[in-house]
């Protein structure tokens, strides 16, 4: 799926090359939907497509679903697939939507990919719910992918984190930086 936007006439960004962002989806809470009357969630279609459309995002991007899994179900083979798809892509800028429980593990697998800006993001509440952090986190990730130098980052809760220096605080429902000695 492709998304693109053209700057309006006279826009100052016309002199700058458009950035194509490859967006890979893996599932996680961002893509979860209510499945039945028992209010159980299951991973559905990638929620990022609707979020980007509703936000009128004006960068060129492609969206590809690599898998639809809760991050607790991701395997080492799944992480190798994500790494291989990023490494083999001609794109240099990526957003990867991912479940928050094992996002840090996947980010660490990507650390040795060179010359690419890779931003992982997700949400604590499904994008389809009225109150969700999904749109905010995706917006942060899209901006980070355009502006940060090559490397691997996690965009959550309005901050950009180094995956080697972050943890998920399940009680506070947020990601937070930690000191090297805490890792």
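Sequence proposed for the structure above (183 residues):
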């Amino acid at each position: 799926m492709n998304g693109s936007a053209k700057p309006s006439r006279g826009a100052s960004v016309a002199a700058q090359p458009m950035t194509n962002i490859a967006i890979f989806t893996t599932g996680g809470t961002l893509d979860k939907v209510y499945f039945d009357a028992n209010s159980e969630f299951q991973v559905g279609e990638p929620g990022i497509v609707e979020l980007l459309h509703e936000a009128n995002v004006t960068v060129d991007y492609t969206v590809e679903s690599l898998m639809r899994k809760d991050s607790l179900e991701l395997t080492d083979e799944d992480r190798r697939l994500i790494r291989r798809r990023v490494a083999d892509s001609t794109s240099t800028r990526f957003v990867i939507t991912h479940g928050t429980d094992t996002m840090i593990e996947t980010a660490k697998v990507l650390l040795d990919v060179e010359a690419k800006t890779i931003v992982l993001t997700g949400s604590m509440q499904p994008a389809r719910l009225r109150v969700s952090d999904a749109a905010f986190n995706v917006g942060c990730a899209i901006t980070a992918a355009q502006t940060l130098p090559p490397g691997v980052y996690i965009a959550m809760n309005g901050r950009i984190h180094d995956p080697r220096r972050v943890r998920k605080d399940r009680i506070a429902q947020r990601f937070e930086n930690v000191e090297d000695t805490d890792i």
